[in-house]
Amino acid sequence: MIERDRYPAGVPCWVDTRQPDPKSAVAFYGGLFGWEFEDSPGYRIARLQGHDVAGVGAPPEGPAPVVAWSTYVAVTSADDAARRARDAGGRVLAEPFDIPEMGRMAVLADPGGAVLSVWEARGHIGAAMVNEPGSLNFNGLATRDVEGAKAFYGAVFGWETLDLDGALMWTLPGYGDFLERRNPGLRARLTEMEVAGAFADVVATIEPIGDDRPDDAPRWTVTFAVEDADAVAAKAYELGARIEVPPFDAPWVRMTVITDPQGATFTATKFVPENRDVAAGAESAATAA
Asked: Which of 4, 74, 199, 241 could bond 236 through an S-S bridge, CB–CB 3.0 to 4.6 Å?
């Protein structure tokens, strides 16, 4: 079990989805991932093995937003992060505000239009378990302007980039040291797997949107770890979801892309070391969803 009790500033720390019918969303994800939810009429926190893993809530008042999974990035100050985002050419969609006893947050949009939130933790640090089946595994930015994104996220979070055999990744310098202290031997295991040592600093992926996908909007994406991608796709379909991309093999993983019954899309991934040499081109099917 991979537990978390804190996140360094600049690391994605939480995901949630706001849906028109939260009760139905709770039933779907409870049935799919085995999540248990606290009994709350508003925002419900999903738990797995007693650990917070995600949130499900009703949409805010106003025009109906696009139903999606949202990414939150840990910061030391939501106010400072909002200021940096504005200075770097982004927009502040929701000015910093407090969530009593939990934290302070703001909702931002990068210059390309991709929306994410920042989280200044107080009582709630974010996901208390990650990278285990049914929990958050990865976050990614789909963007039409990679160079513009590099400038923006570098200014806001201090992120740099890594090109790993053609796959672009966001890195946070020093994050690997944090993980190594908590999980001694991590770098050695990466070396044994013949993965670049800099991978330990990776905090998210970058998915360039090509001109051949004119209808794709820039966005942040969410990936959950699963024990069996094929079984999860079958279960999701049974529960009323749409399978955007059927399970397929990609480098290091077997994955599928699913849209839940109310329209939020996510990726489900099983780590498969034997797939390390699978052709990277297969990933294009997932990023197109």
From this structure: 241
Residue-wise pLDDT for 80-135, tens only, equals: 999 999 999 999 999 999 999 999 999 999 999 999 999 999 999 999 999 999 99
**64 close to 20: Cβ distance less than 8 angstroms:** yes
Per-residue pLDDT tens over the stretch 253-276? 999 999 999 999 999 999 998 988
Query: Which of 197, 165, 131, 162 has the alpha carbon at shortest distance from 278?
Result: 165
Rounded Cα distance, 209 and 105, in Å: 28
Can you read off the two tokens belonging to residue 90? 């982004």
Report the predicted TM-score, pTM, of the whole model to 2 decimal places. 0.93
Give the contacts of 83 (CB within 8 A, at least 6 positions apart). Answer: none
Work out the angle between the directed axes of helices 146-157 and 78-87 (0-180°, nearest 10): 140
Distance CA 159, CA 170 (A): 6
- Token digits of residue 205: 């992926």
What is the distance between the alpha carbons of residues 194 and 130, in angstroms, rounded to a whole number?
Answer: 23
Whole-number Å distance between alpha carbons of 69 and 179: 26
Residue type, 16: D
Please report, as a single letter, which amino acid is at residue 256.
T
d(CA 166, CA 156): 25
Tell me which DSSP letter residue 90 carries: -
- Residue 167 CB neighbour total at 10 angstroms: 16
List, in order of start, the domains of the chain with CATH numbers: 12-287 (3.10.180.10)
